[in-house]
């Protein structure tokens, strides 16, 4: 079994450590400390993490995020590196790989691409295929509610429909870039957009794209 999630986990921890607690990220309103706290809470506090999806749990999530955000930054980084406790479902390699490959890749790029001197990473074809496989399965979910049709297309011609509708915008790029675009990082993803000018502008500005 691949170990993409573990690789991206360690890379994310290294980047957060190097950047320090107050560096910008692509997550609106979050500095690196906030992002680190989010990663730890997601793995270690399932009683609160559900607040990202369930409105009634949002106040609890906010309290727990504040609690973890107040911890020493070095402690948060170490908790990310060591991974979830044994009682967490994320401690199972299969679940870790399925749930965290995309999570850690996206957040790694949230840190990298918020810096002024960032350059694209060279990703191996196997990892690109793994990201595409996950994007195919979640495309309709991340594209729900957007104001235009959206087709995601790899350079090899593989496509996934994120949202049916008109006018249609086609985003073309590597799987890794399409994933970032679909997960709301429109302005940082290296993709080419084809379609009506107004539709492209509307898509780039929407806040509904992604998680």
TrEMBL record:
<feature type="domain" description="Mycothiol-dependent maleylpyruvate isomerase metal-binding">
    <location>
        <begin position="12"/>
        <end position="87"/>
    </location>
</feature>
<dbReference type="InterPro" id="IPR034660">
    <property type="entry name" value="DinB/YfiT-like"/>
</dbReference>
<dbReference type="InterPro" id="IPR024344">
    <property type="entry name" value="MDMPI_metal-binding"/>
</dbReference>
<protein>
    <submittedName>
        <fullName>TIGR03085 family metal-binding protein</fullName>
    </submittedName>
</protein>
<dbReference type="InterPro" id="IPR017519">
    <property type="entry name" value="CHP03085"/>
</dbReference>
<dbReference type="Pfam" id="PF11716">
    <property type="entry name" value="MDMPI_N"/>
</dbReference>
<dbReference type="InterPro" id="IPR017517">
    <property type="entry name" value="Maleyloyr_isom"/>
</dbReference>
């Amino acid at each position: 079994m691949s170990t993409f999630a573990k690789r991206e986990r360690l890379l994310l921890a290294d980047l957060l450590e190097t950047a320090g607690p107050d560096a910008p990220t692509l997550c609106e309103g979050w500095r690196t400390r906030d992002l680190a706290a989010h990663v730890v809470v997601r793995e270690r506090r399932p009683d609160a993490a559900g607040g990202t999806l369930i409105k009634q749990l949002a106040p609890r999530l906010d309290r727990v995020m504040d609690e973890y955000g107040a911890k020493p930054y070095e402690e948060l980084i170490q908790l990310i590196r060591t991974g979830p406790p044994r009682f967490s479902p994320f401690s199972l390699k299969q679940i870790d790989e399925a749930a965290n490959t995309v999570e850690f890749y996206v957040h790694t790029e949230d840190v990298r691409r918020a810096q002024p001197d960032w350059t694209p990473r060279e990703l191996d074809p196997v990892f690109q295929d793994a990201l595409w496989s996950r994007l195919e399965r979640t495309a309709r979910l991340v594209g729900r509610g957007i104001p235009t049709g959206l087709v995601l297309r790899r350079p090899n011609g593989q496509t996934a429909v994120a949202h049916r509708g008109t006018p249609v915008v086609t985003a073309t790029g590597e799987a890794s870039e399409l994933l970032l675009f679909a997960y709301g990082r429109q302005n940082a993803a290296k993709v080419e957009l084809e379609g009506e000018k107004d539709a492209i502008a509307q898509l780039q500005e929407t806040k509904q794209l992604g998680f």
